[in-house]
Design a protein that fits this description.
Pfam families: GRAS. By secondary structure, the chain is of the alpha/beta class. The protein is built from 13 helices and eleven strands. It has two domains: 153 residues, no CATH class; 264 residues, Vaccinia Virus protein VP39 (Rossmann fold, 3-Layer(aba) Sandwich). It starts with 50 loop residues before the first helix and ends in a 5-residue tail after the last strand.
């Protein structure tokens, strides 16, 4: 970020080895032989360590937990623990994270008789300073890809406006905004006013910030002033859990009191749509049926009613919405190997920054696997489903110009080999070793539906 510098990585919390969970069960996992005779599971077999076999073990374990099969649950947990050290390679650490999540689920829902005796291990939540969060975000293109694509699209869309109002709904606490301010300041026609509105923070979305939004706003206003831009910063108490209802209501009131004239309204939704509850939170909801619409559908329709100049939607290309634990686990396993592989490429084994990332991914895995109902907030949808939602909400995709594509490619050149960019129809897709990671889309209200 332009208004930050380098910093020493923080001391992240140390996650105790998984074997510590079982200290009260006769040292079962410390043995080299299974605690039951003639087991069909033999962790010494090399075949168990390939990704397909590990995925099948995790699926069998999830099924055993869901069917209250105590014996199979204990057997598979034992095998997984013996092949998944917390300090192993990326595949082993990924498996260890899923193992912990399965243990948490079994303990929470009382599936396995042995699980209630497992101590409740509380992992402290690390709160990032501004410098640390900027370093966290800048390390890989995971977030920078969306920042770069969205900012380029915003610059093109607001070129003729003197006032720009940005609704920044982002999980990274305005880390995108300084670069956008810098770009606006370098234009021939500098806007007379930039208004920035954000929703108040939610406690269950990582990464967690350690400064108040009032302090953040002061820093952003001062930074904008140093670039000869007048910035108004406003925080509205609102949360993703109800589709930012109070934020939308406040924006509607503002439009009634102060109708737009020469003002562009940009809604920037970065890694935030998947935190708004969708249909699987209530199986009777149907996003095609407005009478039973989820908060996610209602949010998009409410955004359409504001008649925005541009809507940016950036999110992870994964499907974690299934009501089936097995389906969610499989999707998460086949998507979240990517950040573990990235970590091994970018960071040394003893890096503190590695702990930032793995703590963040581990929380995501635990939420997907161990939580249900309103506590399960990680409900990402595949790109195609998000595109369908936007079209059903009467938006039209406008895509990204060549300038945006060039900006993204230039940004990717700053990072290690392995990252790629796919341009499919109107959207952009960030890839890692050919696998889809994050998508970016740009939308305007369909003129035929105004």
């Amino acid at each position: 970020m332009h208004f930050t510098g380098t910093s020493t990585p923080p001391q992240m919390h140390q996650i105790a080895p998984f074997s510590g969970f079982y200290s009260s069960i006769n040292q079962v996992v410390h043995s080299t032989l299974p605690p039951w005779p003639h087991s069909i599971f033999q962790p010494s077999s090399r075949s168990l360590r390939d990704s397909y076999s590990i995925e099948q073990l995790l699926i069998h374990c999830a099924n055993a937990i869901e069917t209250n099969d105590s014996t199979s649950t204990q057997q598979i947990l034992w095998v997984l623990n013996n092949i998944a050290p917390s300090d192993g390679d990326s595949s082993e650490r990924l498996t260890c994270a899923f193992l912990r999540a399965l243990v948490t689920r079994a303990a929470r829902y009382g599936t396995c008789k042995v699980i209630p005796s497992i101590p409740n291990v509380q992992k402290p939540i690390y709160k990032f300073s501004m410098m640390e969060l900027a370093s966290f975000v800048d390390l890989t293109p995971w977030h920078r890809f969306g920042f770069t694509a969205a900012n380029a699209a915003i610059l093109e869309a607001v070129e003729s406006y003197s006032v720009i109002h940005i609704i920044d709904l982002s999980s990274t606490h305005c880390m995108q905004i300084p670069t956008l301010i810098e770009a606006l300041a370098n234009r021939v026609k500098i806007p007379t006013l930039v208004k920035l509105t954000i929703a108040s923070a939610t406690n269950n979305i990582r990464p967690i910030f350690n400064i108040s939004y009032q302090d953040l706003g002061t820093k952003l206003v001062n930074f904008a002033r140093s670039r000869n831009i007048v910035l108004e910063f406003k925080v509205i108490s609102s949360t993703a859990s109800n589709g930012f209802l109070s934020l939308i209501d406040e924006l509607k009131i503002q439009q009634l009191v102060h109708p737009k004239r020469d003002e562009a309204l940009v809604v920037n939704c970065h890694m935030m749509l998947h935190y708004i509850p969708e249909e699987t939170l209530n199986p009777q909801m149907n996003f095609l049926d407005s009478s039973s619409a989820s908060f996610r559908t209602m949010f998009l329709k409410a955004v359409h009613s504001l008649n925005p100049t541009l809507v940016l939607l950036v999110d992870e290309d994964a499907d974690l919405t299934s009501k089936s634990l097995v389906c969610r686990l499989r999707s998460a396993f086949n998507y979240l190997w990517i950040p573990y592989d990235i970590i091994d490429t970018y960071l040394p084994h003893d890096s503190k920054q590695r702990q930032w990332y793995e703590a963040d991914i581990g929380w995501k895995i635990e939420n997907v696997v161990a939580e249900d109902g309103s506590r399960r907030v990680e409900r990402a949808e595949a790109k195609n489903k998000c595109v369908e939602r936007m079209r059903n909400a009467k938006f039209r995709e406008v895509g990204f110009g060549e300038a945006a594509v060039d900006e993204v490619r230039s940004m990717l050149d700053e990072h290690a080999a392995g990252w790629g960019l796919k341009r499919e129809q109107e959207h952009l897709m960030l890839t890692w070793k050919g696998h889809s990671v994050v998508f970016a889309t740009a939308w305007i209200p369909n003129s035929f539906d105004q």
